Amino acid sequence: MKYMLMMHTGRDAAGGIMDWAPEDIKRHIEFQHTFDQELRDRGEMVFNDGLTWPDQARIVRSDGTGAPAVTDGPFAESKEFLIGFWIVDVDSPERAYEIAGKASAAPGPGGAPLGIPIEVRPIGVAPSGDL
Amino acid sequence: MTVPGRSSTEDLLRELAPRVLAVVARKYRDFDSAEDAVQEALLAAAEQWPTEGVPDSPEAWLVTAASRRLINIWRSDTARRRREELSGLMDPGTAPAADDPVPDRDDTLRLLFLCCHPVLTASSAIALTLRAVGGLTTAEIAAAFLVPEATMAQRISRAKQRIHTSGVPFQLPSQENWRERLGAVLHVLYLVFNEGYASSSGGELIRTDLSREAIRLGREVHRLRPDEPEVAGLLALMLLTDARRQARMGPHGELIPLDRQDRGRWDQAAIAEGVELVSRTLRLGSVGPYQLQAAIAAVHDEAARAEETDWPQILALYGVLERVQANPMVTLNRAVALAMVDGPRAGLDLLSTLDSSIGRHYRLAAVRGYLLEMAGDRAAAVAHLRTAAAGTGSKAEQRYLLTEIGRLAAQ
User: Fold this and answer.
1) What residues of A are in the B interface, CB distance below 8 Å?
2) Given A44, A126, A128, which is nearest B199 (Cβ)?
3) What is the CATH number of the domain that holds B340?
4) Which residues of chain A lie closer than 8 angstroms to B395, CB-CB?
5) Backbone phi, then psi, for A63, in 5-degree steps?
6) Which residue segment(s) compose the domain that B406 sits in?
7) Nearest C-alpha of chain A: how many angstroms from B401?
8) How far is A3 from chain B (nearest CA, A)?
9) What dotted CATH number matches A2-123?
10) Residue B79 falls within a domain, yes or no?
């Protein structure tokens, strides 16, 4: 079963890591490396990547006529936005939640777990049988 | 595998792979290294045989080549070498001669029981079975499951490690474990089949044909144990389901339900084989879930038109299946059959017994919507189909349900 694990971050926290102490940043990045490697070693990783900061994002809208409108994104009203994701292939939803739990507890300043919300969604589900 | 023009060398190697692996694993009592060694020997054969010709005894050639490579693997593994030297296994004098493979009709079965051992998770067992018994390459298996090759390689490697550390023996299960362990093997084959069958609706045309691979392995197990009714049952079920493959989706990959399929596109040879197999097996008297599901599939497949379906017989078979393997999904299917026999209200009444167990499952909502439409309550049908469409995790199924809502609204 494949799941997409989406890491969201608050608008205020977005620039956060840039302001952390160097050792906190180092610890956090090392955690991410170890975390990803463990998923690869277990044969569970399908794909993962981080996204650029939201100031790089553009929102495209089209009413179907003429050129689409391109504006700065993400939506001004949204408090949180996607900062990174993993696609994993695991045996059970419980395992997906376990992985998400680890990702959520990534170390922040002083090594304290960040408790970042991770959204878990099944993807690529096959129809359950003949209709 | 349906790659056109696949060379005869490849066919021969796929057929020989599990037998060679079984012989080498049994002789050297090291499945992990034997598997690597046989893969290397197969690669060498795939390169050499097409130009240099197939050896007189290809199996012996492969066993010899794999044995040499296995010794090399051992030699390069210092820790292992130390251990093997201690145990005396590395002494060439005690190692069995490599060029005399002892054919054993149970070798392939031993291999299957090992790869489908309950110490492994389902995904590991599937990957290992396809590689060790199916003779697929890691790249082919990875492509079939839409994961990177490195991920699949790790999965296989961990599965082998797990077998190694758990000390799973290379032997057939004992009499008292036989049924349970055979059940695990059949379950793995069934999962492989379903992966291929279900995913084919996604329009993934380049995927390795897992359904045909499962059928091939099912045939092999049936050949080795023709007297096991559930093996025959599973093979029949796979044949009778796969027979409908060409008809179950439209040109854009959209799902087509059984009653609207173009039955002219069903594979009549597969149906004939499946029907014959399940009829012969049911007469033996030891009825199990695979045989019953195969029998139900056979009744559907034997109807030339949907209206000619023998629903009373399907209803009776679901009744027996419910007794053999009570499960809300079986009851759900029985409700459909009951509706076809006694009318939609009878089916809806049976569905209401499922609210406490699978009340939130989208399939319950879908079937309820379908039966409500039969009962003429279009508004309620649409409401339940909406619930079902919102609840399914399958895009293809969601599109189907949304199309159904559109069809009902247009009436």
Assistant:
1) 2, 40-47, 89-91, 122, 124-131
2) A126
3) 1.25.40.10
4) 125
5) -95, 10
6) 319-411
7) 10
8) 11
9) 3.30.70.1060
10) yes
> What's the pLDDT at B84?
57
Strand, coil or helix: B249? strand
B383 contact A CB<8A: no
The Cβ-side half-sphere exposure at B328, using a 13 Å CA radius, reads 15
Task: Return the pLDDT at B103.
Answer: 55
- Please count the structural domains in chain B: 2
Please name the residue that has the structure tokens 């589900």.
Answer: A125
Residue A10 above 70 pLDDT?
yes
| Residue B207 burial (10 A CB sphere; 0-12, 13-18, 19+) | middle
Cα-based distances in Å from B10 to A95, B13, B38, B106: 38, 5, 14, 23
* Domain assignment of residue B40, yes or no: yes
Tell which of B128, B130, B147 to mutate to test the A interface (max A CBs under 10 Å): B147
Which residues of chain A does B309 touch, with a Cβ-Cβ cutoff of 8 Å? Answer: none
Residues of chain B whose pLDDT is less than 50? Answer: 1-6, 88-100, 201-207
Nearest to B396 among A41, A127, A130 (CB): A127
Instruction: Say if residues B304 and B265 touch (Cβ distance below 8 Å).
Output: no
Among candidate residues B55, B78, B103, the one where a domain is terminated: B103
DSSP H or E stretch at residue B153? helix B149-166
**The two structure tokens encoding residue B315:** 């209803």
Q: CA of A37: which chain B residue's CA is closest?
A: B151
Closest chain B C-alpha to A4 CA, distance in angstroms = 13
The answer, for B119 touching chain A at a CB cutoff of 8 Å, is no
Q: Is the separation of the CB atoms in B309 and B300 below 8 Å?
A: yes
Place of tokens 């590991």: B124
Q: Among all residues of chain A, which has the CA nearest to that of B256?
A: A131
| DSSP SS3 for B144 | helix
E strands of B19-173, at which residues?
none
Question: Does residue B138 sit within a domain?
Answer: no
Q: Beginning with the edge strand found earlier in the chain, give each strand of the sheet holding A45-50 in spatial order.
A: A45-50, A80-89, A2-10, A118-123
Rounded to two decimals, what is the model's pTM?
A: 0.86
What SS3 class is residue A61? strand
Phi, psi of A20 (to 5 degrees): -70, 165
> What distance in Å separates residue A24's CA from the closest CA in chain B?
30
Type of residue numbered B92: P
Report the complex ipTM.
0.84
Identify the closest residue of chain B to A129 by CA–CA distance. Answer: B198
Extract the tokens encoding B58: 């290809």
**Chain A interface includes B89 (CB < 8 A):** no
Q: Is residue B359 part of a domain?
A: yes
Q: Single out the residue in B88, B103, B118 at which a domain terminates.
A: B103
- Which residue does chain A place closest to B162, by CA atoms? A42
User: Which two tokens mark B241?
Assistant: 């389901």
B241 to chain A, minimum CA–CA distance in Å?
9
Which candidate from A122, A130, A131 shows the least CB-CB separation from B393?
A122
pLDDT tens digit sequence for A28-80? 999 999 999 999 999 999 999 998 877 888 889 999 998 999 988 766 667 77
